[in-house]
Amino acid sequence: MRTMICMINIMILFLVLSVAVLCNRVYAQERAEGRGKQYCLDCHQQKGSEKKFADGSWVATYVNADTFSRSVHGAMDCTVCHQEFVQGHPHRSFRSRVQYQIMASRRCRECHPDGTITSRAIHAALLKKEVLGEAVVCTNCHSAHAITRVVAGNAVNAEEKRCMSCHSREGRMGFVNGEAVPTHVDTTELRGSPHKDVGCSDCHFGFSATEHPVRKFRSEREYRHSSSEICRRCHYDKYSKVAEGVHFALLNIGRLDAPTCVDCHGTHAITSPAKSRLAIVRKCATCHSKVYAVYAKSIHGNALFNEENRDTAICTDCHSSHSIKDTASADFHDYIPDKCSACHSNAAIMGKYGLSTEVVKTYLSDFHGMTLSLYRSETGRRFGPPPAMAVCTDCHGIHDIARVSGADMSAMKGKLLKRCSACHPGATENFPDAWLSHYTPGLRVAPMVYITEKFYRIMLPITVVGILFLVLLDIRRYLKNR
Amino acid sequence: MESVTISGNEEQVRRFCAYRIIEHFALILLFGILACTGLPQKFYYLGVSQSIIVLLGGIDNMRFIHHIAGGLFTMLALQHIPVNIAGVMFFKWQPSMLITFKDARDAFHNVRYYLGLSDNPALGTRYSYKEKCIYWLVLMGGCQMIVTGFVLWFPVFVTKFLPGIFIPLSKTVHTSEAMLIFILVITWHIYDSVLSPDVFPFNGSIFTGYAKKKQMKMRELSATGEDIRAGEPGLLVDRNRPL
Q1: Are residues A453 and A361 part of one domain?
Q2: Where are the alpha helices (DSSP H) in A168-275?
Q3: Which residue in A372, A387, B9, B131 has the most C-beta neighbors within 10 A?
Q4: What is the pLDDT of residue B241?
Q5: Contact at CB, B172 and A378, closer than 8 angstroms
Q6: pLDDT over 90 for what percent of chain A?
Q7: Which residue of B has its CA nearest to A421?
Q8: In this predicted structure, what is the pLDDT of residue B216?
Q9: B145 touches chain A (CB under 8 A)
Q10: Per the domain annotation, does A9 fall within a domain?
Q11: B111 in a domain, yes or no?
């Protein structure tokens, strides 16, 4: 009897243990099926908790259950992304928040491999930088738990809604020196810009649905320069050109008034530069007002302002947009003929206005042009720096370029003599006539030169052919005599 | 002409004095420098020109060398013309380089000879019509180069007296004439003095001062410098004077 009771007890114990194991398996299965999400949220719905990293940085552990359930991943269980938490809540340590985010981004890329995301330019650009060693963190743009479907800018719109809940209102962002900038963002302007499909956090790096770091800047200029660094992430090619330019050189010596990306392109109301050439000129005028006033009266400025001519030269045509060189440097001066040539050797453009396309060719075939082109090819191989050669702007002016016919012509001749005298002291009024003013010699212009050229053009081949003929006759006769 | 000397098995006669030899040496040197520093300027866009320019330390250095050589060439020409005029006028030098009607007849005769209408070539004088032609073309061309080179070197000075158009005109003449002289020298003169079957492999009389008697015979000159065709003008040579 006692033996039987013992066996029954053992069976009951085995049954209880079996039920316990079964219950545990059922619970684990429930978690695996997503019903265990609430298990995680029991803790992670609590605000105020955070995970700290070795370098002192931190990340909030709070998850908004409503936002998450509306996100594209709302139907998924936490452990689909946080796979290491399937069997418990292991303690992990990271050097920094960035390291943690990079690890987290690897999970994203398991389901969204590179090949599936590179069709979007921003992904392609970021992955290109990753090769160069720059970390790519998915959550910087897409956020962690509030991810919405990326179709027709929905992700952007969702983010925009979050940001605009505050930034649609008037507000000011203050700086240490007392300056302030408005924080209001006009979404109409933003949607009309080339960045209409870019989310707020794409540019405002470090900001997301859950994070809004507080930053301190000493001045508005410091903030502007800091903001411009954001542009570099996607427009590195332009940034590297700017780094070679005169504006960046000013910044390098501590001049915070040096223009930066947002000064020329704007912030949220960025427009394509190709849309308005007039706007480009006016943008430059904000700093270069004196030059602007001179340019406005020139033949180029007149065509732009009075005729809205799209062919006329504007600031960026000569100075370029990003790699703006020091105009006092030989690098800029010696390449001025190339800049003028871009339009003045273009038959399609010049044909519209009946202008000659031979101007650069005639310049290069003359003393100054020929010497300049040799100086340029000798760069780095000469014994010393070459002297400055007269280029287009030396005769025609720089920003005050005038028409070279009619009443303006006589004024130009006066300027020409003055300019010639700078390098050729003692030059008389005959001296500038040595230059044929871009004309090729003809019966009407410089007939003496034209006739002389023709004479030699005929004489040279006759001489060569004549001599060869005589030599051949001499050899023939010699062979015959033998 | 000086007495006959024997070199090897061939009899040689004195043809040029030291003055002419030095003058010709100087002319070769200056012509070479002017051509090497001038042609790359005319054809500056060619790779070989730019290599030469860089080799000489840049276009400024090349122009400097060209100017110096041009100045020396001017001095060579300036001494040559008055020295020879004075020699003919006061020292009884024979004006053997003057072009005569006989040269025209020789040229015409040689055309007939080349075409097979005559059995013998023209019998020249001390200098053949070919040598006279190249001499006068180089001399006249050289004078043109000197004048136009001066205009190009000192344009500010020149335009104090002349219209500015003379600068591009001088440039055209200078560069074109240079080409003409260069072609004449490297084709006609080199053929006539080096490659021609009559003198091949080399007529070195202008360098040694002596010419082969056999060759001089062809020019109807006796070993003593006297014309075997008596009565021809301008052939008697003062043996003690520069030629």
Answers
A1: no
A2: 187-191, 200-203, 220-232, 236-243, 246-252, 261-265
A3: A372
A4: 40
A5: no
A6: 11
A7: B156
A8: 64
A9: no
A10: no
A11: yes
Question: Chain B partners of A435 at a C-beta cutoff of 8 Å?
Answer: 164
Q: Which amino acid is at B212?
A: K
Prediction ipTM score: 0.80
**Cβ of B162 and A430 within 8 Å?**
yes
Closest residue in A to B173 (Cα) is A452
pLDDT at B12: 72
**pLDDT of res. B8:** 55
Q: Please report the pLDDT score of residue B65 as a whole number.
A: 95
Q: Residue B71: which CATH number?
A: 1.20.950.20
Q: Which residues span the domain enclosing B175?
A: 7-228
Tell me the pLDDT tens digit for each residue of A29-73: 555 444 567 888 888 887 777 888 888 888 888 888 887 887 888
Looking at the partner chain, which of B115, B165, B198 has a beta carbon nearest the beta carbon of A449?
B165
B147 touches chain A (CB under 8 A): no
The residue range of the domain holding A251 is: 148-266
| Chain A: closest CA distance from residue B230 (Å) | 28
Rounded-to-integer distance, Cα B169 and Cα B150, Å: 13
Question: A371 to chain B: nearest residue by CA?
Answer: B59
B187/A471 CB distance under 8 A: yes
Task: Give the total number of structural domains in chain B.
Answer: 1
Residue B236 domain-assigned (yes or no): no
Is A298 in contact with A408 (CB distance < 8 Å)?
A: no
pTM of the model: 0.66
A326: left (phi over 0), alpha (psi -120 to 50) or beta: beta
Is B235 within the bounds of a domain?
Answer: no
**Mean pLDDT throughout A429-451?**
88
As a whole number of angstroms, the distance between CA B75 and CA B52 comes to 26
Q: Given A211, A244, A266, which residue is the final one in a domain?
A: A266
Nearest CA distance, B18 vs chain A (angstrom): 31
Q: How far apart are CA A174 and CA A182, in angstroms?
A: 9
Q: Is residue A175, in this structure, part of any structural domain at all? A: yes
CB B201, CB B194: distance < 8 Å: yes
Facing residue for A434 by CB, picked from B58, B155, B176: B155
Q: Which residue(s) pair with B210 in the sheet?
A: B14
Tens of pLDDT, residues B104-142: 998 888 888 888 888 887 777 778 888 888 899 889 999
How many domains would you assign to chain A? 3
Tokens 């000493």, residue? A218
Q: Nearest 5°: phi and psi at A215? A: -120, 150
Closest approach of A428 to chain B, Cα-based (Å) = 6
